[in-house]
Amino acid sequence: MKYGYLRFIRPLVQGLFFVFSLYIGYEFYLFYSWAIGGSGDFHPRPPGVESFLPISALLGLKRFILTGNYDMVHPAGLTILLAILTISFLFRKAFCGWICPVGFISNLVERMGHTLRLSISVRPWVGWVLSIPKYLLMAFFIYVIFIKMDLHAIEAFINSPYNVAVDAKMLQFFLAPSNTTLLVIGGIVVASVFIGNFWCRYLCPYGALLGLLAMIGPLRIVRDEEKCISCKRCRRVCPAGIPVDKRQSVWDPDCIGCEECVSVCPKEGCLLPRLGHYRLNPLWVPLLAVALFEVAWLVAMATGHWETMVPIDIFKRFYAVMEGFAHPSY
Ligand code: SF4
Ligand code: SF4
User: Fold this and answer.
1) What is the pLDDT of residues 273-317, one digit of tens each?
2) Which of 97, 140, 156, 176 is the most buried (most CB within 10 A)?
């Protein structure tokens, strides 16, 4: 198998991004501790923490589209969202398959299910039914943000104390999860042992949006029917449960561009990614996706679209009283 090495590279790349996410979370924890007076040592606020605020970033995106004004409350969040949308359009959901830390954990649990021989395959129609919640959630967010909220409401939300302090609220959510949260997370982990990538395939509204973009994008995994020996290895390893061995071209919104299928195909040149008319070496997909992610970060840094314009004193002041901030309702 010419591209078998991809199966080893993917967890490595995912693992690196996962560790980096933990590092950002820890740096933010140090900043937060300082800001609420729990520690005397000042730590700068890591802008990357805004990657955990996708809804705020979507609001920033709408304002950017309507006015051209960049969200300078959480600019890194908007930059990361724009990078992820571009990656998803160009390289399928390679963000989910190669970069997302939740996707990494999901893959680890999936592998555990395979190792323990507990994983089961889901019939396509069952998969579609199970996918309904994530599309409903996505439709809800799209409706509220892009239809119901006008520019005035968007501006009010972006500049609200709630939005400024939402990073700390998110941290509290992780530091002190409620029993309900723990039960839901535990349920998803258990479900993921039996049905690989349960969260990503059936519940993540962000992934649903990225999948729709990937569907209209130019990258496909293409199967050469004349070379195919119908061994079904591609279907068995696909974390999205796609029947790759039956497809001439994989366009499914659930395809995460992981290329597990390509890596196990025994017939050289039978299964390859194709960008428009060009067949690609599969290594280019993660290389270009990660490069685009990094370039977005560098450009944002160089042009002043990475660091927030909110003064540190405001963060301190809002964190001190954020318990009283309710989510703005529209
Ligand atoms: S079709 Fe291939 S690239 Fe897409 S999710 Fe399945 S294994 Fe990954
Ligand atoms: S792994 Fe390759 S040869 Fe086997 S069924 Fe899939 S595409 Fe065909």
Assistant:
1) 998 888 999 999 999 999 999 999 999 999 999 999 999 999 999
2) 97
Three-state DSSP class for residue 71: coil
pLDDT digits (tens, 9 = 90+) for 53-66: 999 999 999 999 99
CA of 238 to the centre of ligand 1 (A): 5
Mind listing the pLDDT tens digit for each residue in 94-115?
Answer: 999 999 999 999 999 999 999 9
| Ligand 2 neighbours (beta carbon < 6 A) | 223, 228-234, 244-245, 264-267, 270-271
End-to-end CA distance of the chain: 54
Ligand index nearest the alpha carbon of residue 264: 2
Residue minimizing CA distance to atom 1 of ligand 2: 265
CB-CB contact of 191 with 130 (8 Å): no
Closest CA to 18 of 118, 78, 84, 103: 103
Residue type, 90: L
Ligand 1 shell residues, CB under 6 Å: 221, 238-240, 242, 244, 250, 255-261
Every domain of the chain and the residues it spans: 10-217+282-324
Strand partners, 220: 274
How far does the centroid of ligand 2 lie from the alpha carbon of residue 324, in Å?
57
Tokens of 278: 């060009």
- Spatial distance between the Cα atoms of 174 and 50, rounded to a whole number of angstroms: 15
* Percent of the chain whose pLDDT exceeds 70: 98
Q: Which of 16-20, 22-26, 65-69, 124-128 has the lowest mean pLDDT?
A: 124-128
- Hey, which of 7, 91, 256, 265 would you mutate to test ligand 1's pocket, going by the most ligand atoms within 8 Å of its Cβ? 256
**CA angle, 88 then 90 then 91, to 5°:** 70
